[in-house]
Amino acid sequence: MTLQDEMKKRRTFAIISHPDAGKTTMTEKLLLYGNLIRSAGTVKGKKSGKFATSDWMEIEKQRGISVTSSVMNFPYQGHQINILDTPGHEDFSEDTYRTLTAVDSVVMIIDSTKGIEAQTLKLFKVCRMRGIPIFTFINKLDREGKDPFELLDEIEEVLDIQTCPMNWPAGMGKRFLGIFNRQKEEFVRYNGDEEETIIPYTELHAHSDLTENAMFQDAKEELALLDEAGDNFSLDDVLAGEQTPVFFGSALAPFGVETFFNTFVSMAPAPGPRKSTEGVVSPDHPEFSGFIFKIQANMNPAHRDRIAFVRVCSGKFERGMEVKLSRTGKTIKLAQSQQFVASSRGTVEEAYAGDIIGIYDPNIYRIGDTLVTGKDKFEYDELPQFPPELFKKVTAKNVMKAKQFKKGLEQLVQEGAIQLFKRHRTESYILGAVGELQYEVFQYRMKNEYNVEVMLESIGERIPRWLQAEQIDESLFDEGNLLVRDREENHLVLFRNEFALNWFQEKHPDMKLIDLFEVN
Ligand code: GDP
């Protein structure tokens, strides 16, 4: 098979959702279709008490959660599927955002009883801003949920994206009858635990128990309304991230999941070209290239080994090959590569654009690093720094350890594990993170890798804004509106709340405050 054939087969995506919307259930169903697992309930141990996908890290073991995203891959209907798991909830961190830089599309799962929920909104927005195609699955139709039109409105409004329902539900909860498949013009009947039945539109007349049902009739009217007034399906718009195809179903039943997946696989994009310092790099460029989007440390504390996750962007990866780290120009032999399949770590012999490989990191990589072969020396676009929301003062418990403290802090910050800010005058340090877990990992690694116990003191949730002004009058700032500098010496103000931010802006219209989210 040629490079191009291999690359075209790849479907690399993440499933994102609010906790409890059904991501695990959905993932398991997909793994079942891919014959990767034989029974459900094996992916996450959190609730079921069964083993978790990854429990390498001590923290993971203690908390019974998966700290960092894992990757699952399997062949499916002539395609090669790569699912990148994104941790959500309290495990939410910058890694969750960064994972989105390594995928070609996302599946967004929404709980029909809840709609779009706050925490996940940011994740969806990052996809939207980056133009990642979003496929929506509205889950739990077997429960009494919100009105489907209301759900579509919500998606359109908060994400500023067009929606195009690919199927349409008749009833819900106890009165759930099934879905109209608009593309195939057939009605898929929901039979509870029994297998679904498929009835072509042309044969519906023979099913009077359905056609005479008021819910069914309502749904038919809604469908007519959609045909007339709804947005037309446009694959181009979907691929441009301007329209999201919407599917209704139940991941648990499962109902509508297989059809969803098949449609998804046929429509979702294969790896595309990526921007670099030397122009756009095509995925079938003959030389290997990729970038590191995540570094997972201490999976085995005894060996202190670290794994860098590489998204392959072009060419062919082969075990044992030599690559060049663009940032330093150094050549590295990649003898140990590991690819992550569900809960077992296997060795990869080869990989193509779209694949994710884990490589051993002897402490030389940074998040965002580019690896290339041949004469290439370009670097892929820098990964954006995602705006932290939680801030804590950090100090070493033992002042005698100032040196190790600084070293550890510097290295972990450089690696991208957490963000560092300096207070204006005092030169004291403030750490910024997207999620609480980042602090736990930081504290753990400082102790284990640098032998320094650190103290963290929360200064609460803050609203960070970059500050642009001709002159910065320091007397305007205090503990409430805290002035800090980031690594590039840019000024930021960490506002106590929205009110303080608005008040400040009104008082000082000449000072420009920039939302970190808007820049990414
Ligand atoms: P995650 O936190 O997004 O991974 O959600 P899970 O997949 O763990 O699902 C959360 C809960 O919702 C579990 O108890 C599931 O059994 C349940 N669930 C998932 N999908 C459905 C569905 O389609 N219908 C119903 N009734 N429950 C579901």
Automatic annotation (TrEMBL):
InterPro entries for the chain: EF-G-like_DII (IPR053905), EFG_III/V (IPR035647), G_TR_CS (IPR031157), P-loop_NTPase (IPR027417), PrfC (IPR004548), RF3_C (IPR032090), RF3_dom_3_sf (IPR038467), RF3_GTP-bd (IPR041732)
Positions that bind GTP: 17-24, 85-89, 139-142
Compartments reported by the entry: Cytoplasm
Keyword Nucleotide-binding part of the UniProt annotation: yes
CDD domains in the cross-refs: RF3 (cd04169), RF3_III (cd16259)
Keywords of the record: Cytoplasm, GTP-binding, Nucleotide-binding, Protein biosynthesis
Annotated Tr-type G domain residues: 8-274
Tagged with keyword Lipid biosynthesis: no
Superkingdom of origin: Bacteria
Principal subcellular localization: cytoplasm
PROSITE patterns from the UniProt entry: G_TR_1 (PS00301), G_TR_2 (PS51722)
Function: Increases the formation of ribosomal termination complexes and stimulates activities of RF-1 and RF-2. It binds guanine nucleotides and has strong preference for UGA stop codons. It may interact directly with the ribosome. The stimulation of RF-1 and RF-2 is significantly reduced by GTP and GDP, but not by GMP.
Family: Belongs to the TRAFAC class translation factor GTPase superfamily. Classic translation factor GTPase family. PrfC subfamily.
Matches recorded under NCBIfam families: prfC (TIGR00503), PRK00741.1 (NF001964), small_GTP (TIGR00231)
Protein name as it appears in the record: Peptide chain release factor 3
Organism: Virgibacillus halodenitrificans (Bacillus halodenitrificans)
Gene name in the database record: prfC
